[in-house]
Design goal:
Elements lengths: L1 H20 L4 E6 L8 H6 L5 E9 L7 E2 L15 H10 L3 E8 L10 H15 L16 E6 L7 H9 L7 E4 L11 H4 L6 E5 L13 H10 L6 E7 L13 H12 L5 E7 L7 H9 L6 H7 L4 E10 L11 E5 L18 E9 L10 E9 L7 E10 L4 E10 L5 E11 L5 E12 L3 E12 L2
Parallel strand pairs: 1-2, 1-9, 2-4, 4-5, 5-6, 6-7, 7-8, 8-9
Antiparallel strand pairs: 2-3, 10-12, 10-18, 11-12, 12-13, 13-14, 14-15, 15-16, 16-17, 17-18
The protein binds 2-acetamido-2-deoxy-beta-D-glucopyranose (5 copies).
The site of one 2-acetamido-2-deoxy-beta-D-glucopyranose (NAG) has 6 residues, from loops.
């Protein structure tokens, strides 16, 4: 009974931690402004995104007829965008939140003239894009998750009224997002954001020289910390997905993003992830970020249960043990032996008590003569008299064009088992703070002179 209640207590605690402890971070993306960027369904099917903003409802407010503009994707005037309902539902079934972006840059055809006008726009959005009803829904009957405010022209007035009106529809949780420019506070959206009603604030750290990345992080970081003070659930780093996505600058090479920018900001309790402009330009950028963010595209609940690695690599290392004759070839030497052995030949009793130090070449394939990408350096000691088993402590010191840094391993290696898991306890450089599991397999074994290990490294914590 005591055991059962302990198990129950632990599972309750674990559920509580999964829900409350650390929230999931994810990548968002804008879709809709270029017909060559692929369909909405394909965008979601990449698995790279947790949020997709359909951009833009370019015209609304001030008694104008609202107008959706999805570039060449479809034509709302001929009702051809209603087929997007299937795509929207497909995205949502993968746990991806799909929002409608209203406003946008390069146009001044939206404006709220009064609080009453804001209420009318909210009612229009509710009936045509959210949980309400209308017989002319531009995107068909799929119900969007919320509204994203991309307000870059006109005044800052009445956007707070619109936010309050949208948040007031209680048949559906309407997610509210805003995309302010990084200079703090934002001229158009600060009033709206101050309502405290926004779930996601994706700050545009591009086309804004005073606060974007410019080879130097200082301006971006100080702006970021101002943004984390706003009353919103999550703050995102809004970035161009490629250099050419932002003529005014702000693109951050993915290596810099992963090794310098994200480590500096992700400690904020409100850090929500990265927002990208736009799907059209995202040629591998989100994938590379996810690699480092521990594949945050998938909602946290699913990610926790499936234990997906955030990085994986398979490498081989080759151990040539000194045998008294191969001094020039040997990469490993016995440096400690039990009283009944010596340092030339591994001792009897399953080598129990032998301690071997190695400096072995690492290769990408199983060929000893392939170009090495680094060295495996450390030791193994045989720690059981009645069966071959060892304890390993070593580092992969990688120095190739693809990988620079170290991965550190430690753990028991029951050699007679075909595969053995040992711990990846940390890393440096490209593997900064990495943790995970490495599955070892003895890939070749030639007497007491040579063996080759295949190391399948699965990292579950990446930075
Ligand atoms: C070193 O290893 C290479 C490749 O296995 C072999 O051709 C060579 O004879 C070895 N040299 C010595 C001194 O053992
Ligand atoms: C080491 O031990 C092996 C096996 O007992 C023996 O054949 C060899 O001569 C020893 N070598 C030295 C240097 O004592
Ligand atoms: C890594 O490689 C670079 C370039 O080949 C070389 O200059 C450097 O000394 C190497 N570092 C180590 C630790 O092997
Ligand atoms: C090694 O394999 C045996 C038999 O499959 C298994 O019972 C044992 O748990 C394995 N040992 C380790 C440390 O994985
Ligand atoms: C793997 C390897 O090259 N081992 C060599 C060690 O030295 C002995 C003696 O020279 C060779 O027979 C092995 O091939």
């Amino acid at each position: 009974m005591a055991g059962q209640s302990l198990v129950l207590l632990l599972s309750v605690l674990m559920v509580a931690m999964a829900k409350g402890g650390s929230h999931a971070t994810g990548i968002g993306v804008y879709w809709g402004q270029d017909s060559g960027e692929g369909s909405l369904a394909d965008t979601c099917a990449t698995g790279n995104y947790a949020y997709v903003n359909i951009a833009f409802l370019t015209t609304f407010g001030n008694a104008q007829t609202p107008q959706l503009n999805l570039a060449g994707h479809c034509d709302p005037n001929s009702n051809s965008c209603t087929s997007l309902s299937n795509d929207i539902r497909a995205c949502q079934s993968q746990g991806i939140k799909v929002l409608l972006s209203i406003g946008g840059g390069g146009t001044d055809s939206y404006k709220l003239s009064s609080a009453e006008d804001a209420t009318q726009v909210a009612n229009y959005l509710w009936k045509n894009y959210l949980g309400g009803h209308s017989n002319s829904r531009p995107l068909g009957d799929a119900i969007l998750d919320g509204i994203d405010f991309v307000i870059a022209s006109g005044t800052g007035e009445h956007w707070d009224d619109l936010a309050r009106a949208l948040a007031g529809f209680n048949q559906q949780k309407v997610y509210l997002a805003a995309a302010p420019q990084c200079p703090f506070p934002d001229a158009h959206l600060s009033g709206a954001i101050s309502t405290g009603l926004f779930d996601y604030v994706w700050v545009q750290f591009y086309n804004n020289p005073s606060c974007q990345y410019s080879g130097n992080l200082d301006n971006l970081i100080s702006s970021w910390y101002q943004w984390t003070t706003v009353q919103a659930s999550r703050i995102f780093l809004g970035l161009p997905a490629a250099d050419e996505a932002a003529p005014g600058g702000g693109f951050i090479p993915v290596g810099v993003l992963r090794s310098q920018v994200l480590p500096a900001i992700k400690g904020s309790s409100k850090y929500g992830g990265v927002m990208l402009w736009s799907r059209k330009f995202d040629d591998g950028y989100s994938l590379a970020i996810n690699h480092g963010m521990c594949s945050t595209a998938i909602p946290s609940r699913r990610r926790i249960s499936s234990h997906q690695p955030c990085n994986r690599l398979v490498l081989y290392f080759h151990d040539i043990i000194y045998n008294g004759e191969n001094t020039s070839n040997a990469t490993a030497a016995i440096i400690g032996s039990p009283a009944w052995g010596n340092k030339t030949i591994l001792a009897g009793l399953n080598h129990f008590g032998d301690l071997v130090v190695f400096d072995d070449p690492i290769t990408l394939d199983n060929n000893l003569n392939s170009n090495p990408v680094g060295r495996a350096q450390g030791f193994y000691l045989y720690d059981k008299k009645d069966i071959f088993t060892a304890w390993l402590g070593f580092s992969f010191v990688l120095n190739s064009t693809d990988y620079k840094g170290t991965i550190n391993f430690a753990g028991a290696d029951p050699l007679m088992n075909k595969t053995r898991d040992i711990s990846v306890v940390g890393g440096t450089g490209d593997f900064f703070m990495a943790r995970g599991i490495a599955t070892l397999m003895t890939d070749a074994f030639e007497g007491e002179v040579y063996f080759r290990l295949r190391v399948d490294i699965k990292l579950y914590e990446c930075w």
